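Task: sequence design from structure.
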């Protein structure tokens, strides 16, 4: 069976998730299209890289991503670093002829994302952007129902991503609160997952009208280290520095197919953890999803008998997308790890079988264009048309 050597750049939160997926993928998807081999782990120092390689099961380690990108033994470069290094690593990897999976958001803005898209297109390598939530079986099932016409013509999409890990003003100023590293705040970090849902399930977005706010204008400085997502204690008394990204945004959206809707995201919503949801209304039914109950899809069809009309729960299992390869009966429980395992399977398969995979860097670029338009709209207090923004990204 073909082996594909992985060079993974970054050994933090997503490093763990992707390493788990490389190890677990063949256990679920067998026979596998190819076996991902954890070849080299890169981090910013030899010490961190060595520790990461041991922890995440990589054969080698390095603190020099350029050398790993140039290594002829490496087939795939996996980018799991903060957002400011995605473009430089991806462009070098494409030039070296490596297939690339990059974490989301693809880049800090559309201009940067476009350079990455151009590089992978020119190199003819496979490319994927890691919007893994669309690989939750219940989300893929929603897509199937929509494509089969089960809810008819889609009229409305309401999507949210609400978290509370940054609601405490003492939660530190990690890279996620710095524009030069993250590009944007809640928008790029979590809002982009909802934008991915909207495009995947409904279609292209043409116009946005947004509001954005930074609720906590300064935070205690975090010196180095991975982003602990608000869990570093004892920040009281530590010097503070300015936050220059959004804490929250909300936008109205218009879709190319005539549907309308709204998208919102915040990391300051006390009581919400990973409240990634959508509710979609069609002219023949409705679908509802909440990632915090990710085995479940709520459905209501207009031809349900009158005395039984209302939302009912479909528990995903072997009868549903990806289900046969996962667990033998419904509702045993899909976790975050499984979404990454499915993502890895689809990416490895696209390389082994030379087929297209999505979401790819073009999707990542389109999402960056929409994100830029949301910030522009919030700034201007007016509708922004996406076509105009696509034209402007030269
Ligand atoms: P993190 O802060 O936990 O880890 C980042 C790691 O990259 C650290 O080990 C750091 O030392 C290393 N690093 C930074 N610059 C580097 C460089 N130039 N070369 C080598 N290593 C470098 O960050 P996290 O949470 O893992 O985020 C990484 C990326 O994954 C971000 O783009 C983020 O938006 C995305 N992400 C995606 C998620 C999803 O659900 N798809 C979930 C969490 C993060
Ligand atoms: C923090 O908001 C975070 O880790 C995001 O970066 C991820 O994309 C999201 O899936 C979970 O929360």
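Answer:
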């Amino acid at each position: 069976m073909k082996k594909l050597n992985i060079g993974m750049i970054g050994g933090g939160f997503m490093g763990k998730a992707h390493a788990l997926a490389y190890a677990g993928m063949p256990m679920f998807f067998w026979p596998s299209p190819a076996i991902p081999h954890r070849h080299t782990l890169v981090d910013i120092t030899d010490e961190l890289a060595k520790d990461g390689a041991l922890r995440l099961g990589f054969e080698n380690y390095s603190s020099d991503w350029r050398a790993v990108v140039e290594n002829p033994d490496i087939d795939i470069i996996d980018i799991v670093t903060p957002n400011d290094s995605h473009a430089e690593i991806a462009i070098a990897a494409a030039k070296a002829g490596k297939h690339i999976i990059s974490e989301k958001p693809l880049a800090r803005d559309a201009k940067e994302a476009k350079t990455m898209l151009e590089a992978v297109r020119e190199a003819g390598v496979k490319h994927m952007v890691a919007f893994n939530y669309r690989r939750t079986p219940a989300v893929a099932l929603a897509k199937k129902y929509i494509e089969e016409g089960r809810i008819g013509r889609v009229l409305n999409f309401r999507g949210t991503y609400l978290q509370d890990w940054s609601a405490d003003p003492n939660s530190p100023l990690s890279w996620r609160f710095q524009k030069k590293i993250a590009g944007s705040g809640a928008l790029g970090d979590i809002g982009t997952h909802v934008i991915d849902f909207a495009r995947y399930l409904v279609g292209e977005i043409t116009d946005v009208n947004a509001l954005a706010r930074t609720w906590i204008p300064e935070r205690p400085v975090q010196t180095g280290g991975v982003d602990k997502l608000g869990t570093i204690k004892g920040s009281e008394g530590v010097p503070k520095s300015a936050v220059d990204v959004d804490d929250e945004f909300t936008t109205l959206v218009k879709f190319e197919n005539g549907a309308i809707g709204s998208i919102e995201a915040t990391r300051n919503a006390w009581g919400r953890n990973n409240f990634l949801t959508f509710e979609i209304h069609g002219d023949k039914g409705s679908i509802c999803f909440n990632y915090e109950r990710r085995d479940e899809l709520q459905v209501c069809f207009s031809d349900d008998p009158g005395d039984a009309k209302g939302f009912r729960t479909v528990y995903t299992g072997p009868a549903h997308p990806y289900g046969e390869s996962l667990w033998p009966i419904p509702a045993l429980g899909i976790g975050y790890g499984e979404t990454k395992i499915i993502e890895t399977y689809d990416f490895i398969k696209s390389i082994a079988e030379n087929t297209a995979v999505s979401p790819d860097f073009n999707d990542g670029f389109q999402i960056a264009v929409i994100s830029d338009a949301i910030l522009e709209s919030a700034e201007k207090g007016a509708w922004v048309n996406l076509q105009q923004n696509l034209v402007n990204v030269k």
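Residues 3-131 form a domain with the Rossmann fold fold (CATH 3.40.50.720).
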